[in-house]
Amino acid sequence: MLTSVQRTVIEANPINYPFGNTRSKNVLQDFNCEAGGFNLCSSSLKVLFLGSGDLRNALQIAENESFNHMQIHLNDLNPSVVARNITILKIISAPDFNPEDDEDFAFLWDVWYNLEWPEVTHKRFRGVLKDLLNDLYPENVSVPKTSQAEMLKKVWSAWLSVLSKTESEARVLMEKVGLERKMSISKHWQLLHRKELENAKNCDSFSMAIDDLASNLERSIGLGGLDDSSMQNIHEEAKQYFETGSCRLENDIKIVCLNPTLLDHATLRWTLHYSLCPFDGYMPLLKEELVTLMKNKMMIRSCQKILKNLLSCYRKRLIDGKTFELFFYLEDALEFCYSENVNKFDVIDCSNMADHVGLANLILACSGKLLDHPSAMLFTDTLRWFEFKSVKFYLEKVLCCPLSMIPTIYGLRLKSRIELGLPEYVVDLRCPTSLPVEVCWQKAAPFRNVVMSASPALSEFLYQLANVCFDAKFPLRITGVPPGAGCGMLLYTPQTFSYVVNSMIQRLGGDHWLKNDVRPAEMNPNFQLARRTLEAWKNGQKILKLSANMPTASCAKMASLSGIPSIRLILLPKAKQGNCSDFSGPGVHFIDNFEVKLENFSTGFEDASISFLLILHHGLEKTHRAILVDILDGSEFVVFESFESVQVEDWSIPYPFIPSKIQLEVPAPKEFHIKVESCVESEDQFHLKIKVISPENAAGIVLFINFPAPCESSHEIRVSRMQQQKNYEPLSLSFPYPIILENIRLILDPTCRHVELVVKKALWELWPCEYRRADDLYNVIDPDQLKPWKEEESLQRSLKTHISSQFNINHLANTSLMKKSPLNVVRRVMKALFLDPARPRYVTIQRMNAPEPDWFFLVHRPVSTTPTGRPFLLLSAIDFRLAEKLVKGGKWSEEKNAEDLKRVFPGGKEIMTIPIKTTEDSKLLKFVLRLNSSKIKPSTWQKNNLTLGEDSPWMATFVSPLYSDNPLLDVESADASSRSMSDNNCCAACKKVSQSPKRCSRCRSSVYCSVECQHQHWPQHKMVCKKV
């Protein structure tokens, strides 16, 4: 019950992914050892995979040869997934296993992917299982918890029993599973293609389904230039897999049994996702990965080639004697993170768990297990971000705050610059569907000597989060599914709200930023008991764990649920009997955080039990009963009719976020000193009120800002006196979001002995940590090594398609519809630079009515291709505004400037000027160019001809498309529509947005701008109000 996630009954209709359906990735490619103080020789790198799925991501990091010691921790809740991974490791870690040996690799491929097995695989796999049941794990593999090791033995025993069936029993099982598999594929495909089936007569839905699935895979290969015959062969190859569930190079194999690792170990049912295919895990292919020597079975040969490379890296590491330890955990991912005995990690990869538990729940749990060094990284993926049409909107909606407030609220910073469009490793125009988006997070710097105060921005965040966490509106079939349900927001609970608030109190050193009236304002009366229980737990008071066995009838009813329902525990007065569907009124308590244990057998759920927490003197023993309710359709399941049947014990596990006191620098008594009394944060600035304690007045206060050039942002400033006193240290102030060094306002009030300090956030400036030497990056781009862009040989779409994909497609024909945002202005600069190779190589960027250009570019054509297939255009650039500052500061001379300009931009050459309008456009362009300059090494020409360095206005940089999240959709309009539908400040009567909205006191769901509007709307609202 440490987890803050709403319980879902995934056991009712389990959908399993025993092998991955996306390409593996190297999570260490951006890990900077130098910044983290990591010793490659002696330090042990610790990586955690939450919801690990199959092994390919873990094997992928074995290719990082620079790390001598690695500890890989893999967690998954599915016993079959963990048992499969250890079994595969047992196979590939054997001293006599050779991935280049056809027989060895065919055996591994059978275990990993194929449903149907020949006798040789059957016999060999039995031997592997017997070793594992005798605790003969690979030397580098361990299961730390004995109880979990015993659970894995049950899985291996179930597999062994399948392989021990007689020939006739095995044939019966094959027929049963084959029929289940066909029905599963047909059923799910029919749900997605109802209209097509309405017009089809006497159709074979299974044949139509597998043909359609094969066509989808064919389109996702991503390689152009293949002839029709090759594409047809690939289509037939995929179709054959979907028809049989197996793919192998060998023909005419006699099948004797099924692969037990692909079945539910408890029920022996087929539970794989209907569209899952081995080839998906290797898509899209690179051109060099496609095996074309033989036209038949190209997909199998190509995918096996990639897998063999992964296995070779892993086995080479073992042979070289480099440590590669693997630890497996079989438990809920969030419970695992909140456990006290868990290590902290350098890298945590969460796969797409954010969609299944909610992003706020996930990053709260993971951030506490992430090491504090600067290079530690957390990766979260989402497949459902497109519900909000844009990755930026997705993050802001699911976290209930603007991007610039995330460091303060969640203690993390976005390493991924998603405000510039899709991250570059997500973009693949070869794929017909949206790829999962991976977002990288790092620990944010803490506040130092800053006392946070309540602010409208923080109050709005709390209000938005509370609306999601204390949502009493259900069943959803009546109230409607709220936005973000598919992204996990439906799984936020009161415990989510408690964890977020108290993690902030812990990091900010107190609750001085929390308005007193915010706490009860959002609270529906049905959640009061849950809130009191959480408060008691947080305060270290005694609370109770209550457990009960569920009636058999309720278990059977729950097993018959469709989909993956979310359930809520409701404590009802005994007087409310029967299927009432009305859960309003006094004495009704909602409990969203509880534990349900369901044992899934072939006959249904057995031995189901439920546990939940309550305060010590809850007073419900004689008056209440308990039911579970499906939030979607309102179905009810009796838990117990009386508390007399409930087992009660003390709950001794401590609350995860213990409040702490802020540690301020304490000045010596009777001396001059300064302290921050308040800090009000908004989306774009910090406004501080500083008290000056001195026999004199506050005059003479100055700021000291230390930052390494060319960085123009800093996390820290120092406040001091112009004339330093003896034994006085300046006051250092630190902020989690860096501040820009321009436009700092210092307002002195000598009479009241206060200073007001206003600092702007560096929204369009690189963070100090982003100014790293290119040599520190694993995936740094070396322009000299890039190949020229060749349209006819490109792995991706045409150059024009790449550039067009920066914009909404519907706006390209009519640019007047395009939003005039700074991002679109910069995208138009990219378009001008890329699409006309006949244009001059010399380019200036100049704001309208500005006396001089902001930038001067030398464009190094031709266009090149990055390793990921994106167009790349190298630039040698000079920042004229920076040059002016450096000259004024004495770090650069006008003579040097003129000399370099003459060398790089000789006279008499044609120059093209690209106009931009606003200062915001210029700032964003500068930000993009500086960000890109941190990702490349200068070319040989640039090293020889440019004066590069910290105190130079010259820059080796590049441009590449800033892809739109969804070029087929008008993101701005979609966001506006979404906001108009879900804006909590929109008056239900006149539809105006109010700055001080009034909420219906009865249902708390409708908002009004005035009492008059509320009275006017009552005839329409009263029917809804009664239901809510």
TrEMBL record:
Residue ranges constituting the MYND-type domain according to the UniProt record: 987-1025
Keyword line: DNA-binding, Metal-binding, Nucleus, Transcription, Transcription regulation, Zinc, Zinc-finger
Any one GO BP annotation for this protein: regulation of transcription by RNA polymerase II
InterPro entries: DUF4470 (IPR027974), TF_DEAF-1 (IPR024119), Znf_MYND (IPR002893)
Superkingdom as given in the UniProt entry: Eukaryota
One annotated Gene Ontology cellular component of this protein: nucleus
Molecular function GO terms recorded: DNA binding; DNA-binding transcription factor activity, RNA polymerase II-specific; zinc ion binding
Protein name: MYND-type domain-containing protein
Native source species: Daphnia pulex (Water flea)
